[in-house]
Write the structure tokens for this entry.
Amino acid sequence: MNRFTSSVPIYDFAILGAGVAGLSAARILSPSLKGVIIDSEEQAGGLAWQLGCKATDRCLYCGVCHGIQLRRDLGNFSSYPFDFILGQQLSSMFKENGNYHLLFKSGRSIITHSILIATGIQPFDARQVPQYGYGTFSHIYTGIEIERNLNSEGVKAFNAYQKIAFIQCIGSRNFKEKRGYCSRVCCRYALRIAEDLAFQYPHLQIDMYYMDLQLLGGKKELLAEISEKRVRLIRHMPYRVESPNGKPILLFEDNQKVNRVEYDAVILSVGMTPNPGTKQVADILRVNIDDDGFIKDYGDGITSQENIFVCGAASGAKDIETAISDGKRVAQRILSVHQYLQQVIP
Ligand SMILES: Cc1cc2nc3c(=O)[nH]c(=O)nc-3n(C[C@H](O)[C@H](O)[C@H](O)COP(=O)(O)OP(=O)(O)OC[C@H]3O[C@@H](n4cnc5c(N)ncnc54)[C@H](O)[C@@H]3O)c2cc1C
Ligand code: SF4
Ligand code: SF4
């Protein structure tokens, strides 16, 4: 016996996560298929719609415009050609006659043939690496904190600073902690913030400590120019920040000698980490995750479960442009599965 009443809505596809990847997939799927997009938060757009423009007197090609364009293309939520449900947490799933029955904590439920996981990422929480003093010492910031407050009183403190340092790869490229992946965006992100700060506070000396600069994608020449003219690149990874007199001091080793350099402020370039919702959805839908905690993509967004797909940053660190094109690519794959089924089961 069916465990649901006949009022349960039935869809061809359900997308979990209304970030840029999920939304761009929904746009491809919805003209031909009946679909729903569900987000656990009360607002759509994910992290991409929370990021700001980083232009100074010129565009810095940060990619945020790709998300803004998507929002313009979609128009009002009420006019979306698919059902749109916000503030819903998945609580369980069962499969019956080839369809997935999804139950949400609110008691709501739906039936769907295909599922697309697009639950994305979140910024790494710098408190998880206490050796860098975030949340303990003054004058230690994260990149995203600086970006969000670039024009506020908080960052006006930079007027009084002479010398600041960025530390790259916070939360990523750490195999010991099972976060060996590169977050891909944070080198470019840090250089753009450095350019913004140098534009607003031309007197600042900016040092950037790194192990390997990832400038792939976007305007590589522009970023190379910023790294040459605006920042002093130092190829060492500080292993600790101390603050005996209220000012941060970076400790790093060079030729087996410990160096201590004092700064007025330190900016931690936090990378991405899988959204906790990604792990929760993976457990409920019983799809495999990889060693870094992202949903395992076996190619074209295919997961370990039949008719469950993944796209965007839920399957690995991506910038906005790549997350959008991944959403579209995986949607095409889902469309072809449905078209094939319509041919063999008329
Ligand atoms: C610090 C930082 C700075 C960045 N700066 C840039 C930049 O300048 N330029 C750039 O191109 N990229 C940048 N990125 C990357 C960019 O944020 C991602 O490429 C983009 O957000 C990925 O989109 P997405 O749709 O895959 O995931 P997300 O944006 O993470 O969206 C996922 C959505 O899924 C929802 N969700 C989560 N769990 C569940 C669940 N269980 N059920 C239902 N819904 C759920 C979330 O609420 C969210 O709406 C940055 C990332 C970080 C961390
Ligand atoms: S790409 Fe980024 S810096 Fe350039 S205009 Fe768009 S949001 Fe601003
Ligand atoms: S993008 Fe740069 S800062 Fe970010 S993890 Fe990769 S190498 Fe490190």
